[in-house]
Amino acid sequence: MTIDKSWTTIRRRGSSNEFWNGLQHFLQMAKPFVNDRGFIKCPCRRCLNNASHQLEDLESHIFRNGFMFGYNQWIHHGEPATGNAGTTVAGPSGGIHERDEMFDVLDDIISEDVDDDAVGGPSSNDQYDDLFAALRSELYPGVSSFSSLNFLVKLMHLKVLNKWTNKSFDELLKLLKLAFPKIDLVESHYEAKKLMTKMGLGYSSIHVCKNDCALFWKENSLKDTCPVCSESRWKLQSGKRSGKNVPHKVLRYFPVGPRLKRLFATSKTAKLMRWQSTGKSKDNDVMRHPVDGKSWQEFDKRHPQFAGDVRNVRLGLAADGFNPFGNMSLSYSMWPVVLTTYNLPPWICMKAEYLMLSLLIPGPQSPGKDMDVFLRPLIDELKELWVHGLDTRDAASENSVFRMRAALLWTVNDFLARSSLSGWSGQGYRACPTCNEDTPSMRVIGKTAYFGHRRFLPTNHHWRSNLQFDGRTERKRPPRRFSTTDILEQLRRVKTGIPGKHPSYGGVKRKRGDDELNWRKKSIFYELPYWATIELKHNLDVMHIEKNVCDSLVGTLLADPHKSKDTDNARHDLAKLGIRHKLHLFEDGNKLMKPAADYTFSDANRRKFCRFIRSVKFPDGFASNLSKNVA
């Protein structure tokens, strides 16, 4: 008699009578085969026939976790063994060790797709068959401590940590096959990578125009030429396309949704994803996490439905360029775009293992004004996560399914990257994005200087009347605060430019009109429904600012000719402004003399300062050995 097992693959278990009736039939069939203590092996996706429970517990386990994949002949539950009978996972007498850690890994991966019709894609059986086959397989006959899958995952991890090349990995696999002929292992890195992609968290390769005009994606995915500049999508040899199509540039896109779902798939991280609601500071004057800040609280007030579920995800975005080749003589700028999850506690959310790489923007030039072209896939997914969300299994709430939504709160970057992301140019007379059109600036020798910092002082502060700063008293109040309406009105006046760097299209420099101020574009972030009302859109990374200010300050104190800001041009500027007369340059015969300033160290004080720096001790790993860099 044929047993109907189709119910074991049903995903919507809670609303399926077929699943419930099939489960009851299975329990009745298994009832005569319990042991003398009333226990029987549990074939749920978590126990995998490695643990035994009472019959009533089997019902709740299978209903909550689902029926295990690959257990097609129920030899432990009353079905006669025929042919090659066996369970999906061998017990202690044969096959892999029952405590193989990859059980939990696969269980977490599979649980992401359970009861989630929005994801689509291949069925769970098709997707995970190869993984379960590698999990069932012993690495070597008689070795039960390692499954083939477990060994391969650890080997791939070593490859990443030690920066092995693909070729060296292939050579290692060949050596292992030669030394251990019976070893159950893949043949190449290519096969290993194909198997690993079935564990999820892969990426998409999106071709890019050589001039950064457009992505060959969605409506442009089948085109062979750029829709903006008409340049070929493919590299050409002698004016003709080579035998194999090789794109000029490839953007790597790492989808955010599956990575967020993975954080909720394990009970440990799922509990941490609620920290922002339980761990925030109870002292109104203390800020230890962004949840304690005004911007976060204002966002919650504007979007109470989103804030109502503490599991909804808050994200921050960081981007900057680097040279991947480590050779500074070779000009190349690759830009990673990284997301951090602010639901996590502050001591975890900035750890490398919890940062999510979302985009890897290719060089050799930095994206500059064309950053929005590369951000398109990420912004589209963020809009989807805000409007529709994703059905997500929460391991911290008895594997209940909820609709997870996500919002991008702000970006974190240096001043140059901020210009690319925000659309406000960080150069010129109106470079300050906060002061906007009220930026106080003047032209000095060789550069633009920004002044007027006394405006932030109290109106009765004595420095406001001091003429030594710029020769004038300061009576202005702090710069006005620009509202959302003001900014949107400014952006409405900005003309839409042509993207890309083609010399005949986007590469043509366009002179901005006076009404456009310092805006180069309306940033793609404004496509997010909530972005315009966020109070703090772009944060500056203080690491660069602190380093540059420290270098300039120490260089000026020590009168370092290479790093001091007290240059001859600066002294000429003082003369033009008619201030600090004792610091003006003067002629002594045929020489131009530079008076010593009160803020520079004497030779004796320089030696004292250097001796102090040499004596400073830091904990191991906190800083480099400064004594080696002090003369």
Q: Give the CA-CA distance, first to last residue.
A: 90 Å
Mean pLDDT: 84
Structural class: alpha+beta
DSSP strand count:
18
Total helices: the number is: 19
Which consecutive residue ranges, at least 5 long each, have pLDDT under 50? 83-99, 114-125
The geometry reads as elongated
Radius of gyration: 32 Å
Main beta sheet: strand number and arrangement?
8 strands, mixed
Question: Helicity level, as a percent range?
Answer: 25-40%
Question: Strand arrangement, largest sheet?
Answer: 4-3-7-10-9-8-13-16
Describe the protein's architecture and organization.
This protein is of the alpha+beta class and 631 residues long. Helices cover 31% and strands 12% of the residues. The protein has 19 helices and 18 strands. Strands 4-3-7-10-9-8-13-16 form an 8-stranded mixed β-sheet. Strands 1-2 form a two-stranded antiparallel ribbon. A two-stranded antiparallel sheet has the order 5-6. A hairpin with a 2-residue loop joins strand 14 and strand 15. Helix 1 runs antiparallel to helix 2 (55-65) and helix 3 (102-113) packs antiparallel against helix 4. The chain is elongated, with a radius of gyration of 32 Å. The N and C termini lie far apart (90 Å).
Give a quick set of tags describing it:
631 residues, alpha+beta, 31% helix
